[in-house]
Amino acid sequence: MSIMCKICVLVWCSFLTVAVLGQQTKPLTLTGRVVDSKARPVIGAEVAAYEQFYDYSAGEDYAKLLDRIRKSDANGHFILNANICNQNNVFVIARKKGLALGWDCLNYYTGNKARGNFNIVLEAPSILSGTVVNEAGNPIAKAKVRALPKTSYLYELRQRPILAPKQWLITQTDAKGNFSFNNFAPDVSADFWVNAPGWTSVYKYTTNYQSSCGFEAGRTDIRLVLPAEVPIRGRVIDAESGSPVTGAHVIIKPDDIKEHENPYCANRTVSGQDGHFHFKGVPAGKHYVKVSISQETMELVDKRVKVDVQADHALKEVLVELDKGGLIEIIALEATTRNPISDIAFDFLQAKQDEKSNFYKRSETGSNGRLTVCAPPGKCNFSASCVGYSPRSVQDQAVGCSLYPPESVRGQVTVIKGQTSRLEILLNRNPSVSGTVIDESGKAVPAVLVEAHPDGDIALTGADGSFEVGFRPGTPYQSLVARHIERNLAAMVDVTDHSKPIQITLKPALSIAGQVTDPEGNGIPAARLSLWVYRNKYLSLFSSDAFTDAQGRYQTRAILPEHTRFGYRISVDVSGYGPKKYKRVSITGVPGAPVEMKTLVLQPANQMVSGVVVDANGNPVAGVPVFTHRRPNVDQPFRTTATDERGMFVVHRLCKGQLKLQANFDGPGFTTAKGGDQNIKIVLGQSRIHTR
């Protein structure tokens, strides 16, 4: 079985505010409702939306607010207007004094949603606090501590730290170096970034580099140690002439975020008239100094130099010699129309035997579909992700290239010093279909959600009932599902010919209702339900608009009766309970009539497990991630933590019943245990069963 969804696994890191250039935006209305953990509306909650971007030069993410901060109305509803580039990177976050922050992502899956409709839950808050000190253990006052919270409440969000609004996520240490956050829910963990008076760099702290790990809400013993810093001075010159290079962009950052003892946010500067640059302070360890030239016509190649900084050195001198190279020119065109395609990002990589210097550069096609980069002579690999397109061919005026579909271009080009190697890349737009949605009277119906299954776009019909949606190539079937929730109308049609417009006629559909309870029969409020279509061994999201009320009741409309072609699965997520994941359900009935569903019973997540991770010799292993996995027929939450300096771990908010623990990825260890077990031993490289 393949679940057609994308979950981005990223490391989030930046205090940067970088302009978004050359990317096309589209307007989008974000609507939703803010409730508390009892499903009661939260009045006057502040709601913000932001889009996340990635700065490839620094290797860090940053956020851009999409609208001014709004407030929820008397029913908890809110409306935000935004111009966005990529819906997968849009987040909505809400806060209200006395409650924990809540957030959601616009689109976990591929394709483009026509609108966002959110149910954001603000739970009772927990405390997350600690102390900032220097290497001597002395407290540091007035240090700014920024939290990057992430939640395990929803699987789709667990590796996606929240970046904005910054003012909601920053506090300052007191005279004793203490800091505290009191606005995080129990399922939240956080990374921290710290910038203190007397220190130049912004330092990053987490329990493990895996983005799902972090300091868990409820901890009050966190200790963040700021390292001593060493200044770095350097000079950028032309390798052939020895003349200084002015105006070069210089970035310094850790060479390996996984291994560096004191990771920090990238620092930037620009070389002066004599080619000199200066960084006031970075920690001891290994770093990369990356130098790039903004004007490609200078034909000087970007260079990345590894620098080893020793703590006992007062100053580190770095000489960066830029070599001349050749130009790579790429033009991306639609295969049928030969229209230019903008905003396609290409990665260029040339690895040398000398590990101290590797070439890497990312560049995007402009409005004319072109990009130009300067690269070192020799073989240079390139790749691009072409969302919405599939590669057709590459016409290379210098050397042949190979392609690896779907939706990606990979190849190699020979770069000759002082010359230009030109590539023309032809891309086919992914299959799409257009049409009109009407009701049984033949009247066009606006505001209908039209979904391409599986794993395709979601569109909203216009005033004339028209729509256009795209499919992912290579899917085993292609269907359209149209739903008008308010009128309880729906329809499904299979797509066999993309060249002809499709007319979809809505018909009366089912409305389903039911209850989510605990084992004692008490209704569970603020539970989120999603309905999935299971067809041809593929799961595709059908509906995520059900949300339980104060009595744990839910209702959702415009549901198609199950068919021999497809069936349904249902998932339920709510904080404090084990989830239901893809549970098979039967939905049959007379169209237009309500269908009462079987009660869904969730187990409380009131257990914990604890233990130690050791290597094959029995030695405790610090700083390794520990994950929980569900066992068959046991609805356990997915949790992540990391071992402390003694190799010990604790996992909270689990259910009774079996679970499987995994420690580490490289040479992992597995142990089967039960919720509530203690003194569990996980041996790396072994599979074990814990005995009480």
Give the helices and strands, then pairings.
Blueprint: E1 2-3, E2 26-36, E3 46-55, E4 60-65, E5 70-71, E6 77-84, E7 90-95, E8 102-105, E9 116-122, E10 126-134, E11 144-151, E12 170-172, E13 178-184, E14 188-195, E15 203-205, E16 215-216, E17 222-226, E18 230-238, E19 249-254, E20 267-270, E21 276-282, E22 285-292, E23 303-309, E24 316-322, E25 326-334, E26 345-350, E27 357-364, E28 370-375, E29 378-385, E30 389-396, E31 408-415, E32 420-429, E33 432-438, E34 449-453, E35 458-460, E36 466-470, E37 479-484, E38 489-494, E39 502-505, E40 507-508, E41 510-517, E42 528-535, E43 538-547, E44 553-559, E45 567-573, E46 580-585, E47 594-596, E48 600-601, E49 607-614, E50 625-630, E51 640-642, E52 648-654, E53 658-663, E54 669-674, E55 680-683, E56 687-689
Parallel strand pairs: 1-43, 2-9, 10-17, 18-24, 25-32, 33-39, 41-47, 41-48, 49-55, 54-56
Antiparallel strand pairs: 2-6, 3-4, 3-5, 3-7, 7-8, 10-13, 11-12, 11-14, 14-15, 14-16, 18-21, 19-20, 19-22, 22-23, 23-27, 25-28, 26-27, 26-29, 29-31, 30-32, 33-36, 34-35, 34-37, 37-38, 38-40, 41-44, 42-43, 42-45, 45-46, 49-52, 50-51, 50-53, 53-54
